[in-house]
Fold this sequence. Notes:
Blueprint: H1 21-38, E1 56-58, E2 63-65, H2 69-76, E3 81-85, E4 90-95, E5 100-105, H3 109-119, E6 124-129, E7 132-135, H4 138-148, E8 151-155
Antiparallel strand pairs: 1-2, 3-4, 4-5, 5-7, 6-7, 6-8
Amino acid sequence: MSQQQPPVRSTRRSPSRVPRPGALAAAGVLVVLPLVTACGGGDEDAGGGKAAPSVTAAPAAGVVAPAKVEVIAGLTGCKAEIRIDADELRQGLCRTKKADYLITTFPEEKLKETWLESARVYGGKYLVGTRWVVSAKPALLESFRAKLGGTIRELRGIGPKPTG
């Protein structure tokens, strides 16, 4: 007669389908942190006064932004023609042999983000810095980024993708 051996139980833990509390907490932090920092009031320092705005370095020029339309235009090699001078934004048009492009500055970061959200309808690439946006042909954006700093953002338009 053969004797049956009792099943051997492993001491290794098999992966559980139920998330661990530590993993849930880490995931929660990753989801909530951007919301808290984005909505955190950020314009006041601990003493109740206005905090200094964050800046984006302009590596080649050795200056910082946020800057005026005229300053950004000068760094890109043009003299801007001011098209809009409003409380919410200032916008200048640069006309050069390479291309025409727009420089838009904002008194507050949240106004820039609202503008970018509206521009999403049109799609395209933009060079975005602290309280400023440059709208130009994609080929120019990288050279402007070397002079101004900032990041290149691609906004997805609405509707069908163009063919051809």
